[in-house]
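Supplementary Note 3. Input sequence used for the single-chain structure prediction.
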Amino acid sequence: MPTLIYPFTQILTLDHLPLRGALKDTELQILGNKNEPAGVLIEQDRIVTVDLLKNLLPKKQKNWEVQILDKEYVLTPALVDCHTHICSAGVRALDYSMRIAGDTYENIAQAGGGIISTVRHTRLATQAELAQTTEKRALQQIKNGVLTCEVKSGYGLDLESELKMLRAIKDTQISLKNQIDLIPTCLSAHVKPPEFEQAKDYLDFILKEILPKVKEENLAKRVDIFVENNVKSAFKVEEAEIFLKKSQKMGFQITIHADQFSTGGSLLAIKIGAKSADHLENSTREEIKAFTNSNTVAVALPGASLGLGMKFTPARSLLDNDAILAIASDWNVGSAPMGDLLTQACILGVYEKLTNAETWAGMTFRGAYALDLEDRGVIAPSKKADMLAFAVSDFREILYYQGALKPEIIWKNGKVKFF
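The predicted structure, written as discrete structure tokens, is reproduced below.
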């Protein structure tokens, strides 16, 4: 049954914006104002019509349900977080304390911290415990306005534990009953585990033992790898290329942790046609230029920059070079524990001088494109009715509050939830 929702002081549709490149706020389609409010008609999980109320109300049918709002709201698309690690066990507060005291990545690892610390805790956790933790973080994502969330494995690094993580993500999706879409990614190639001496041997193990099981159980359609020359346990460009091409032949879509501490990963991503290259904090002019004619999405992860105290992804330069720029949280227990996409995107926007339009595009339809989901991130006919209502009268106030303002009402697949 169709449902008409109104009135909205403004609807920030993000419709008709290009997928790539820089955006001006004057390009934004804003429907409605205080004197002429707007509304949206939805049916089941899809948007049917978006228009001014003066055009919608005369068309109202007897079978339409109505949701009438009691104060001023701005309606936006729901957020899409296209890079997270919210499935894991343990915390890394010691890492953070050592880092802000000046210790290096290698010193922290030698002291028992780093990714391998999370691996130890995750291997000890049960599938139910991992699902419980993932659900808690996913519920926080919903409150923050994220209704599509990518979730990686990569803290198991053996057959049993990697499958356990991916099964826990699947269990969480079922238990949350479609309040949020969790998009699983197999990141077994996060780092080389201590059980293997050679990176090549571990990558072969993933290809022969882990990925066939992932495919058999339909646990993930995406494969990721940490490509990094300056981290001993990560993977070099040459060995990653062989691994990724074989993964592609198995039918997996590819994404890469790239250019976080050194370059090489993003050029590989572009070369092999990866869906995205994520991080990019150390991308140079060469890498930025390479994104110009590429359909590989450049994903900025400001949460990692904040957690590690390092420079931000060169978002402004990427946009000015016609890249497809998405913004994600990288929510993880080690380098990006905040997990608040809206706050992080606001901060990135300040430092990289992003317009409202560029920031919103990065956390909505451009992030959705990085996940190969082009049915969301825009308020327009036929798109998913994943929407947020903020209790303000002007859309610009949302980023102005730098994440302190959260959505008061959400609609997931057309179903309403109040906070």
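The first helix runs from residue 53 to 56. The chain has a mean pLDDT of 97.
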